[in-house]
Amino acid sequence: MTATIENPNYAYPARSAGRRGPNLEKAGWIFMRASGVVLVVLIFGHLAFNLLWTPGGIHAVDFGFVGGKLAQPFWQWWDVLMLWLAILHGSNGMRTIVNDYVHKPTIRTVALWAIGIAAAVLIILGTLITFTFNPCPEGADLSLLPSFCAEL
User: Fold this and answer.
1) At 49, is the secondary structure helix, strand, or coil?
2) Can you tell me where the transmembrane regions are (predicted)?
3) Which of 11, 35, 56, 66 could connect to 60 by a Cys-Cys bridge, CB 3.0–4.6 Å?
């Protein structure tokens, strides 16, 4: 007895040998592997500094700790790079899932646009917050601010 398996209906057929231009799916695949490795280093560095190398460990992490950390350009860039890569990595994964499982072109287009807009908004807002965060705003009531603000 012979079984015949029909050709599955993929949303995107395999790349033909005669096609010209950049292979965006391959670039996305490579980006996922590279960003994953960099994210592991960034996340474990973030956790090691906050939980192991800081005197007091987890109990020392409070508003003042975060405010002091975000006042340093090194940690601003570290956190922004981690944010950008995490959002781009996650949105690229969601894009892959949508391309694999959503077969109606209109719904696929709407979903991909929604993922792109959400990623852009999160990157813009996260970057703005990281670089403009001020734990000691001028004119604020000193009783509401962290203790290190009174020294300034």
Assistant:
1) helix
2) 30-53, 73-90, 110-133
3) 56
